[in-house]
Structures are given as structure tokens and as C-alpha cells.
């Protein structure tokens, strides 16, 4: 944990809800204004409710920003990341990618580091140095995707990465 940022239990619970329970299509994590990573929105199976960050300012912690339910799409996921880009901020995310490989349905958990070109150097460094602490607690991730622009976020790029055995 080179950056000194901790991880709230809520982050790992949200991850397990995607991995084991398939409750969410995606979860987005952020570093809050006071250097905390927090969850923003939750939605699942037709429900969607906003969650206010409940991190303490004296603690540097990762928390959930948004949970997207199965009523959401990859387009919704990308739009949320693009909103962060407008704020010149980075994000972490997991997405339950489902696709067909030949005639066989596939499902892969992808971990994203969204680090847009517009993000500040401070944001990029904080997210890069905190990523492994979060990632190490997420067993079962099958693809890791670092995105800096729209090309990186394109579903074709994500599918290419997910079709590999492990990326």
C-alpha cells in the first residue's frame, strides 16, 4: 500500500456481490476529495440508489463510488467514467463482462484503472500507487485493463483483453 490509502470493507463486499452473487454488473471506486476512494451509486436488478461517501477525512481509504445493476449497460458504465474525466479524475472499476466465444457463453471479471489524459498528475500518481492494494484483495479478476482514452474504453478492446486466458 505505497500510497497509504486503506480499503474499506464495503469495497470488497461490493466486489464479492459481483463475483459470487452477480448482484451488480459493475462497481466503480474513486478517491474522494480528501484522498479517499469511495462508492457513488448502487443499482441492481431494476433498483438504483445513490450512496453518500461515508469515509472519515483523517483516513485515506478506498470506498465504492457507484454500483451498476443489471438494468445498466456498458454504455452507462463508460458514461460514469467519462463524468470523472470531466472532473479531471481517475477511477477504479470492476465489470462483469459477458460475451460469446464461438458458441460458448463466457463471463470474465475485468478490473479497470481509468486514468484519462486530462487527469492531474497527482490523481494519476495516487491511483497508480494505490491500485495494487485494492487489486490484491480481489481474487478472481480475469482481465486487467488500464484505460486513458475512448479507444481504450471501446468494448472491442475490452473483449479482446477478456478473450485472452489472463491479461
Automatic annotation (TrEMBL):
Entry-linked CDD domains: ADF_cofilin_like
TM helices/strands, residue ranges: none
A GO MF label: actin binding
SUPFAM superfamilies assigned: Actin depolymerizing proteins (SSF55753)
Keywords (A to Z) from UniProt: Actin-binding
Gene3D superfamilies named among the record's database cross-references: Severin
ADF-H domain segment(s): 2-163
PROSITE patterns given in the database record: ADF_H (PS51263)
Domain of life: Eukaryota
InterPro entries linked: ADF-H, ADF-H/Gelsolin-like_dom_sf, ADF/Cofilin
SMART domains: ADF
Record keyword Transcription regulation present: no
One of the GO biological process terms: actin filament depolymerization
A single GO cellular-component term on record: actin cytoskeleton
Family: Belongs to the actin-binding proteins ADF family.
Record-given protein name: ADF-H domain-containing protein
